[in-house]
Amino acid sequence: LYLLDGGVLKEITLSSKRVQVLGDGVSAFSKSASGEFVVVRQGRLEELKGREGPLAEEVNSWCLVRPGSKGCLFGRETSGEPSGQEREFWYVSFPAASGAKPKLLAKGGISNPFWSPDGQSLLLLRDVEGASPGLLFSEVHEVFPETGEERRVDRTSQFAAFAPNGDASVFVGASRSKAQPTVILLLRSTQRELTLCEHRASHAAAVCPVFSPDSRRVYFQSDHEGKSALYSVNVELLVEPTAPRSV
Question: What is the pTM of this model?
C-alpha cells in the first residue's frame, strides 16, 4: 500500500505491517508500471529517483502516469479565471532524458482525467454550453497525446464526475441534477444511460464513482446520511466483467 502521511510518501507491506519511507515533501504521486514514482514537490513535477531537475514546474497537486510508462499527465492553473472553473491538462513524455518539454493537451471546463486502459488516449469530462445561456452539459471527450486531437465520445446527463470501467466500454457517472441526483451507467457502444441508484450527495463532484477492477461493482461516496460514507452497487448483470489490469 502506498500513501501520503503529512507529505511523506510511505510504502506499507500489508502482511508484515512494515513501513518504509520513500520520500518527503510530497503533495501528490503516481506509480508507473515499472515501479518508479513521479511526484509533485513544491509545485514541481519530479521523478522520485533518477535524473535531477524537474520534469515540469508550476504544477497542481496531482499527477497521473500514463499506462506503459510513456509519460505523465499533470495540471496547471489557468490565469485570469475563477479557481475551479477553468483548468489546463499538460503532458510530458518519457524518458525524461530525451529532453521532451511539456505540452498542453486540453483546457477550459474540464475535469476527471483518466487514461484509457491501453494508454492510447486521455478520457475526461468537458462542460459545454447548452441552447440556453448559462446552461451547461457534460460530455465525455478523449484526447490523443501524440497528435493533440480531441473528440467527443458521448454526451452525458449532467455528469459532475465519472470513471471508465476496465476496458472503457462503460462509464459510471454522478449526475449534478438537483431533481435527479443519481448514479448512472453510460454504455459507450449504444450511447444509452441506465440509472443505478440515487446518490443524494450535497456535492455531486465529490461522489467520485468508480468501478471495481473486474467491473462487477460500482463504488461511490455520499454524505446524504449526515456524514461521508462509501456505498457499492452490484452491476455484474448489467456490465460484462473485465479482467483486472496489471499495473
Answer: 0.87
